[in-house]
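Researcher: Re-running this chain for the archive, since the previous output was lost when a drive failed. Same request as before.
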Amino acid sequence: MANNYTHFSEKLRVKTDEQKAWLENWLTCPFDLAADSGDSLLENKKFVDWCKERGAYPPDVSVWPTFQWKFFVDPPAGRYLWIYAESEQADQYHVAAMVQAYFKHFHIDAVFMMTWAETCSAPRIHEFSGGEFIVLPFGKSVQWSKPGMLFDKVLDKINKNKKKKDKGEKGKKGKKGEKDG
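Model: Regenerated structure tokens:
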């Protein structure tokens, strides 16, 4: 049996104490997930709403957040939130939801980009990948990209060109076989 992992490491600029407090609140779970697991949490409207605000699907929340984090100060540049993953339960979608909510809440005119790697403890086919996302200014949207997306684009273009070529050849064949007058 093999284990799958998602790895990432990025920093998010945190300028004020208010921003730091907001992020701490967003990242801290007010529910005892170990004690209240199962249906009792799913019946709790506050828990369900809390999950939805964070881009999480309630039945899947057994750990929160699904990544590690800590604040640090880089003296010349300021304070940051370090967001990283060193476990099997990392979820880049939760990071994107957090950054988007943070940008919206504080009207931050910046972009945030994070890349991740998907690895496996054994050399299994189709188990290695990764991707990136970008949160646009003010949290307007999140743009995603994965390696397969580029492949799909190229394959679509090849197929479209092939169809055009096939249509062109069919048209020429029809004209060739026509009798003159």
